[in-house]
């Protein structure tokens, strides 16, 4: 059962917190965050010099910290903050810190359902990942590109396995980097490696790798493709086979290769952000058919609509529909759906959200200082001083809106306009 099935989906507007203005006894209050179900607002507050607390609606948790940063809710509604106590760092869930302590902690990661929380950590100048408060047994002198699998069962990062002295070009060219999965490294090393990616069930890992000064490819489970390219972007696993696809640059243009063989002919000025439909029958990407003009391509066929910036590609659960954000001149954001643009133009827009049945699309937008939630290109329940991303009910008939008016947090459930 998806956790949203247990939420309150009764239509209507409800006041969650009468006032989220800073409390008089606090020196300051940081940005408000709202739980996915809309039932809790939380923020870091400065109680006194060197003393920070966590506010939840109208109360403040008993635990205080020397420092606190990077707050946010997990998908299942836990308020997670990196905190410092006795000059050591850890993560606090709903105000309760993990038992493990680190020299530093950053880059929070959540499993898709939120049950697993991970973060990058440094301890005694060695780097690795901590998963639900348990750090990798093996740590490294350098690490980056941290990732937690969607099911939360595995974690990975690019790590440095050979020490490099100043201007040590020989060791660098021989290869000092590889990928560690759950702390265990691949046997092979590379000149560089970037952004490990898990397969859907986390059985395998792929990453971008650099073999020489001029040759790039994709490595899967440590084995590089036999074909090399001028450059590559993030790989993408096919959901129902062992194949891996990735954007590749060849002859100065970008296309897509699958398992090292050209799948989409290199004809674009750029091609990236690959996503497969759930059944693997469709492959989507953001592409630039002309210089400075981007769009979305589906199975190598670009949409006719273009924009100087296209980002935040999202695919419906059944894989039949796609949406993205377009931008003109850095001031006119708009929603693009199935190759057509919604009417509205906004100062800012956030990643669109499909209903589970794929029939509806919603997006949070801002015009001037006012926020709104657009559903199927129609504004729902007016404007807000602040708003958060909308969520559809499991059956797609209703939308949950979390918004603030005059420092009052409102939780609104409305019917989806058609």
TrEMBL record:
- State what protein this is by name: WD40 repeat domain-containing protein
**What InterPro entries does the annotation carry?**
6-blade_b-propeller_TolB-like (IPR011042)
């Amino acid at each position: 059962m998806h956790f949203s099935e247990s939420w309150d989906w009764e239509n209507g507007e409800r006041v969650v917190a009468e006032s989220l203005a800073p409390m008089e006894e606090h020196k300051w209050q940081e940005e408000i965050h709202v739980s996915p179900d809309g039932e809790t607002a939380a923020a870091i507050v400065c109680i006194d010099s060197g003393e920070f607390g966590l506010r939840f609606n109208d109360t403040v948790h008993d635990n205080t910290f020397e420092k606190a940063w990077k707050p946010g809710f997990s998908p299942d509604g836990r308020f997670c903050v990196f905190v410092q106590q006795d000059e050591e760092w850890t993560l606090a869930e709903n105000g309760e810190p993990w038992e493990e302590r680190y020299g530093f902690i950053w880059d929070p990661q959540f499993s898709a359902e939120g049950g697993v929380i991970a973060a990058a950590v440094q301890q005694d100048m060695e780097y690795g990942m901590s998963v639900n408060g348990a750090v990798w047994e093996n740590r490294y002198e350098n690490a980056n590109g941290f990732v937690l699998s969607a099911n939360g069962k595995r974690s990975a990062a690019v790590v440095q396995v050979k020490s490099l002295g100043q201007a040590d070009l020989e060791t660098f060219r021989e290869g000092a980097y590889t990928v560690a999965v759950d702390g265990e490294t691949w046997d092979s090393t590379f000149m560089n490696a970037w952004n490990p990616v898990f397969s859907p069930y986390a059985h395998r890992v792929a990453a971008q790798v650099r073999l020489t000064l001029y040759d790039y490819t994709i490595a899967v489970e440590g084995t590089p493709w036999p074909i090399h390219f001028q450059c590559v972007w993030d790989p993408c696993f096919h959901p129902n086979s062992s194949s891996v696809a990735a954007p590749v640059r060849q002859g100065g243009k970008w296309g897509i290769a699958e398992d090292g063989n050209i799948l989409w002919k290199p004809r674009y000025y750029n091609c990236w952000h690959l996503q497969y439909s759930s059944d693997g029958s469709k492959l989507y990407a953001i592409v630039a058919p002309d210089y400075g003009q981007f769009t979305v391509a589906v199975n190598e066929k670009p949409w006719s609509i273009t924009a100087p910036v296209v980002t935040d590609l999202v695919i419906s659960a059944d894989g039949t529909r796609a949406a993205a954000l377009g931008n003109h001149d850095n001031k006119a954001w708009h929603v693009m759906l199935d190759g057509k643009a919604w009417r509205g133009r906004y100062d800012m827009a956030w990643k669109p959200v499909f209903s589970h049945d794929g029939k509806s699309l919603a997006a949070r937008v801002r015009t001037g200082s006012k926020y709104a939630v657009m559903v199927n290109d129609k504004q729902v329940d007016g404007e807000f001083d602040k708003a958060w991303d909308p969520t559809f009910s499991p059956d797609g008939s209703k939308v949950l809106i979390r918004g603030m008016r005059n420092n009052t947090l409102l939780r609104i459930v409305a019917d989806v306009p058609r």
